[in-house]
Amino acid sequence: ELKVEQNPLFLSMQEGKNYTIYCNYSTTSDRLYWYRQDPGKSLESLFVLLSNGAVKQEGRLMASLDTKARLSTLHITAAVHDLSATYFCATRHSYNTDKLIFGTGTRLQVFP
Amino acid sequence: EPEVTQTPSHQVTQMGQEVILRCVPISNHLYFYWYRQILGQKVEFLVSFYNNEISEKSEIFDDQFSVERPDGSNFTLKIRSTKLEDSAMYFCASSIQRRTGELFFGEGSRLTVL
Fold this sequence. Notes:
- The complex is a heterodimer of chains A (112) and B (114).
- Chain A is mostly beta strands.
- Chain A has strands at 4-7, 10-14, 19-25, 32-37, 43-49, 55-58, 61-66, 71-76, 85-91, 101-102, 106-111.
- With 114 residues, chain B is an all-beta fold.
- Helix content of chain B is 0%, strand content 50%.
- Chain B is built from no helices and eleven strands.
């Protein structure tokens, strides 16, 4: 059964600092999604990573995928308060399923 | 920008009552999904739907749950007899492609069962 683990679960960081959120998954997968969720709100799609070595960047966020290591990272550069949210990664265990398995989420809090 | 819309945003119901949650997916999308998130927990897949039938469902999606697309725009989730443990945020999502497409989520419907 596919398991998706994120760490850390909670991250408190100062504005201007860099940090990385890790997403490990237990079986092979063909894609990896990153979502952002503000409290009480929906899931906003950030990145879809489709192949080994894929790297995507949007503003202060950069996501990468290593399918051999079954690892994706979400790197935050020079954090700002607006990035405070919960970040989820999600993947699925085979091509023949609709079911996305979500990670536990990483709650990011950026303070001045 | 096109978006997935859901109603109601919050519903409070008594245990045992029927609830219908409504979703309007993005208009040119063909694949529809329901996920749920119990407070403070992971997002969990419930069901996927295409061409007026269920494509896939999880073990959570038992006989108490049903989905339908009663007209060309709405996609509904019905819970026949709610239980306390059904209290959660229910998210509808849609995609233009099935297994390769990006999912677009609605704002969610919070269900509270008393």
